[in-house]
Structure formats: structure tokens, C-alpha cells
């Protein structure tokens, strides 16, 4: 049997009283049930992620990019990942600054890797956040996954850590089917030949 892909599930919000960890925990349960992944939940609130960036570009500096000591574990997790799920709320029709900062401190860590999205929020359910993330991740040479999950008005559509929609696990399975396929395909491709600039 082939080695399971390393999946990193990112909790994108760091707000006091946030709902993000509840969604991420359910996503991790669904990923475990899928059975294709070694799973790591990465909570951005646990790392030092300054808004001020170094002068150098993370794209060209590679391993010499001067990141803060408190970011080292985050970078190592991103480096090791074969696939990502970004769990994001919607803030003012986009995604939170915490997630943008974590993305911008890295470059090669995203390249030629698949990224899926699970969003939540008010009426829009995070769809603006995901549209923006898709754009940003294309710049980083990531591959965005078509199927994801969006939870509008989560405060009335979730109960006891679970979405009320009985179809939600099925949607998650579809997302993980696609993510697992891309994770294995791109891991093989990265091992065979360096990704072109
Ligand atoms: C600054 C801010 C802006 C928000 N803007 C939107 C928005 O544009 N669309 C939306 O659907 N929900 C919006 N919301 C509601 C959030 O999606 C909701 O509060 C969610 O719980 C935030 O995620 P968190 O609890 O993990 O921080 C906003 C919330 C905040 C704090």
C-alpha cells in the first residue's frame, strides 16, 4: 500500500472566542474517516506570525529566509505537508489577516501542492474568502481543489460541534477524494522532477 499523504488542516482565524477550531476538529474527524492521510491540525494562534516581513523574498531566499523562532514549527509542518485544508471564516468579504500573514511568510511550502477549503461565516458562508484564497494560492503555484464545504450562518447550522446538514460528511468525502488524488500525484511528481520556475 502506498504511504499516506501528510495532510495539514489550518485553523485560519485567531480571534478571541473564534469558531474556527470547532470546524477544524470536525474536518479532522472527516479526514480520519477517509483513511488516506496522516493528519496534523495547525492552529495559527499558536505561532509567532508578525505582519512585518523581511526585506528578502521567501520565493528566492528559500531555506535562508529569516523567519522568527516562534514560526519554526509552523514552517516545518508546511514543509512536510503533501496537502492542505484551509479552514477559514469570512471577514469583510475576504479571509482573515492571520491567514494571509501565514501564507505570505512562505512560498515553496505551497508550491505544487493541493489545497482545499472549508469556510464558514454569516450569510455568505465564506465564499468570498475562498474566491480570494484561490487567487492567492495560484500565485504560489498551489493546486486548488474544486470541491469544498461552505457553512453559512454557522451559529444556527451547527450543533455540538457538528454541522446539522446530514449531507456534510458526503461533501467532505468528495473533497478528500479529490485532495488525496492530487496529493499522491503531486508528491510523486515533486519527487521525480523539480517544479519549474
Ligand atoms: C471583522 C469581521 C468581519 C466579518 N465579515 C463578515 C463577512 O463579510 N461575511 C460574513 O459572512 N461574515 C462576516 N463576519 C462574521 C464571521 O464570519 C463570523 O463571526 C465567524 O465566526 C468568524 O470566524 P471566527 O469565529 O473563527 O473568528 C465577520 C466577522 C468579523 C469579526
TrEMBL record:
* A Gene Ontology cellular-component term: cytosol
Q: Which residues form the NADPH-dependent FMN reductase-like domain?
A: 6-153
Against Gene3D superfamilies, the record matches this protein to: 3.40.50.360
Any single GO molecular-function term of the entry would be:
oxidoreductase activity
Q: Which InterPro entries match?
A: Flavoprotein-like_sf, FMN_Rdtase-like_dom, NAD(P)H-dep_reductase
Designated name of the protein = NAD(P)H-dependent oxidoreductase
Which organism was this protein described from?
Frankia nepalensis
